[in-house]
Amino acid sequence: MSYIAKPKVHHPSLKANAIGLTRRDYEGAITTLCAGCGHDSITAAIIHAFWELSIPPHKVAKLSGIGCSSKTPAYFLREAHGFNSVHGRMPAVATGANAANQDLIMIGVSGDGDSLSIGLGQLCHAIRRNVNMLYVLENNGVYGLTKGQFSASADKGSTAKKGEANAMEPIDGALMALTLGATFVARSFSGDKAQLVPIIKAGLSHRGFAFIDVISPCVTFNDHEGSTKSYAYTREHAVEVVQADFVPLRDPIEAEYAEGSVQSVTMHDGSIVNFRKVAGDYDPTNRDAAYTAIRDHQRRGEVMTGLLYVSPDSKDVHDQNETVAGPLYNLPHEQLCPGNDALQKLMAQFR
Amino acid sequence: MNSRVNDFAFKIATANGTGSASANGLIMQAIFRMGVPVTGKNVFPSNIQGLPTWYEIRVNKHGYTARTPHFDLMLALNAATYARDVAEVRPGGYLMFDSSWPLDEKLHRPDVTYLGVPLAEMCNAAFKGVRERILMKNIAYAGALAALIGMDTEVIANLTREKYAAKKSLLDSNETAIALGYDYARAHFDCPLPIQLEKMDATKDSILIDGNTAAALGAVYAGATVGAWYPITPATSVMEAFKGFCMKYRRDPETKQKKFAILQAEDELAALGMVIGASWAGARAFTPTSGPGISLMNEFIGLAYYAEIPAVIVDVQRTGPSTGMPTRTQQGDLMLCAYASHGDTRHICLYPADPREAFEFAAKAFDIAERFQTPTFLVSDLDIGMNDWMVPRLKWDDSYKPDRGKVLSAEDLDSAKNFWRYYDHDGDGIPQRSLPGVHPKGAFFTRGSGHNKYGAYTEDATEYQEVLDRLDRKIQGATKAVPQPLIKQIAGAAVGLVTVGGCHAACVEAMDLLALDGIKVNYMRVRGFPFGDEVRQFLEQHEVNFIVEQNRDAQLRSLLMLDLGVNIEKLESVRYYAGFPMSAHHVINGVKAKLEKVA
């Protein structure tokens, strides 16, 4: 992982956000990934989304597991605490951090090996718990750091660099998330920043587990002909069914839409996501319809993208637990310790 | 048999899931309230219903609490185990059985007195409904026992009234059932038997409590706010008790909102991951588990050690290897906890001997984990955790302030020139810590990969080793922070007796009995790892030290050798590891056998 700090050069004409920060303030160290890696484009989209939302970087916790994708939290938000945990176990660490301090804005970055193989169980249970975090799965269908083995998201028939075809069925993160009761499911493409940025923003405003599966081609090991996770294949087969426009709480709604073509969903914090329907009569609040639509596109050899599903009445792990507002970690000890008098009263029960 | 007032043991054999636990609890509590020291050992199967289960009660006026395998009276209430139950009665002892059915001639021993009580017949006549008849049969045997050993009927009546104050119908049934057994025994046998109770005044400052409940209470008092766990025998009741206490003490009085979060994880890996995440974010967090859980947690334990994140792990040990016997006790994880995970690691361990220490050490574990920024183990076991022990009332010092260690506040960070996460500022090997969300200057990247003292990634040989060597110094520094060994020097003693954890009870009794045979021993119970100078000095003081422990491989002896470099010639091993708590005779036999060998 890189520790080469990026020089902090501020161009005077760089635009500042509501808290006076420029996009440079949301950057991290220089990437050590291969030139052209999809992950770096996702990093750029993350930087852009946080900047647009004017989130103070140090209020963010960025977590990851192990793998190429898991290196990327070093490349954005240098003023945020980062946690490069163990392989496939980031969801548990994130769950604990969120339990201790629900005011942290949490982003987890993972890959298809980290999320769908070694960490499949942890991902499933984080979805079930509805931990309040943005979870970005940078999906390239291949193990990059160990040089080119198939991952669990590799499509059946997709070929490896040396020509070998994958014989097994893939695990589709978006479909799996929907069946597990995920409250926010999106699929995007690292090459489509215009689509990705509003989805990331909506995910950060969602109260609960916001799952984004981003097809992110591996230029070194999985960008050849025969791969179904290459830039060329994804560009050719991606079909956007719904375009999400994210409108933060304080912003006026400026865009105008033709009647009937927009569905608005109000997020927990009062911000709004407007879904512009690109294809047909897609309802992003209907879980079963989302599932069916994804399967229909797959049968046609297409990769359906967009913010595919949002549950308007999402309850996160603290809502379920009925935790007090604010962080637990800094509650004063006198509120936590019942004291000796209470202990002596309790002792009567043990006699 | 001579009269054996306040010094005897009996065993109750029943089938699991029939409700005998409440009768056994009643018996224990009644003896305790008569002021007589008492211990109970629940010998239960890994099963919910049907398999045989036993409850052993030892009454001892001297306060010896170790398990004794010699039973003066057997309440043989499970026909499936009659043969082995009959065999376990001490010659000259008694056996009570349900005489609703005849006892097979083959089960008769000439040296045992048989006491038949028609429990089923009486309960079938007195109660309606299958379930009630079964449940009340248990209460009826408690009634018969009360007559046989001379329990105070007033104490029993009070206990029953307290327990069923809110349920009149249950109170009536219980009172009827007790009277059935009691009256039958009084009418048919010469009550009380020579093994009998007499009121004492030896329990008024004590309580009966299990170690899991006590450890949970320690976590509450220490201010733990996040508990993550995966259910496992024998650790499950730690989190159940924690939850119960938190619901009682930790909810906002008006909104009822919780000042705690309990996460039932998908497995032990996740449970420790959650604890690490919560501790990283600044909370006091813990996970209770047993050996199989520790095995799964190894990867994360190494991360927490290397990335220097506090984590409190309660290991309620059970027998291994593998699934082993989940409902039997052992000290089989001593090595595992001390050196868990790949690479060079060493972990701080606290070894309670009874529920009082489980309470105190659980609280202390949070201070140590945060002070040293490292995983800290409370190494308990099934015997301490799940059995009721008589211990002094728990006390809490209200002046206690949690030691959060070197955590920098927003103000500290604001005025600091630099923040270097793994930099040793003052030579104690402990770096400064920052929490997420507090201040931009505190930001750094926590990682399990190679890092230098500034917190940056490294593959540089010198930078890597510098951090690894500091970690070793840091953990060594904990020798003074862990509970110090308990040492008892006896005038004229030439050999040492050394143990850990729950073997204490057997060792204390064995020392007294050995003294009667003219064998004097000095005693040391280690209570924390890494070991300090006191432990070394004690071992070096004697030519021979007997190391008493409950595992096959003499793990405590290995730890003493590895950590202190003590010569193995000085360390004679005494072990018992078949799954029951250690008894004094195990220690005595072991010591005597080795002394003969040495001589």
Strands side by side in the biggest sheet of chain B: 11-10-12-13-15-14-21
In CATH, the architecture of the largest domain in chain B is 3-Layer(aba) Sandwich
Spatial shape of chain B: globular
| Strand line-up of the largest beta sheet of chain A | 2-1-3-4-8-7-13-9
Level of helix content of chain B? 25-40%
Mind telling me the CATH class of the largest domain in chain B?
Alpha Beta
Q: Ends of chain A: how far apart?
A: 59 Å
* Structural class by secondary-structure content of chain A: alpha/beta
Mean pLDDT level of chain A = 92
Strand content of chain A: 15-25%
> How big is the Rg of chain A?
21 Å
Query: Which H/E pattern describes the elements of chain A?
Result: HEHEHEHHEEEHEHEHEEEEHEHHH
Total beta strands of chain A:
13
How many distinct helices of chain A? Answer: 12
CATH class label of chain A = Alpha Beta
| CATH 4th-level superfamily of chain A | Thiamin diphosphate (ThDP)-binding fold, Pyr/PP domains
Task: Give the DSSP E fraction of chain B (strand runs of 2 or more residues).
Answer: 15-25%
CATH superfamily of the largest domain in chain B: Pyruvate-ferredoxin oxidoreductase, PFOR, domain III
Number of helices of chain B: 19
